Amino acid sequence: MSWSNEEMAKYVASLFPEFSSVNLGIGLPSLVAQEIPHEKSIMIHSENGVLGVMGRPNKDSVSPTLINAGKETISIKKGASFFDSSLSFGMIRGGHIDYCVLGAMEVDVYGNLANWMIPGKKITGMGGAMDLVNGAKKVVIMMSHFTKSGAPKLLKETNLPLTGKSVVHEIVTNLGHFRPENKQFRIITLAPGVTEAQCKLPN
Question: Which residues carry out catalysis?
Answer without folding.
Answer: 47
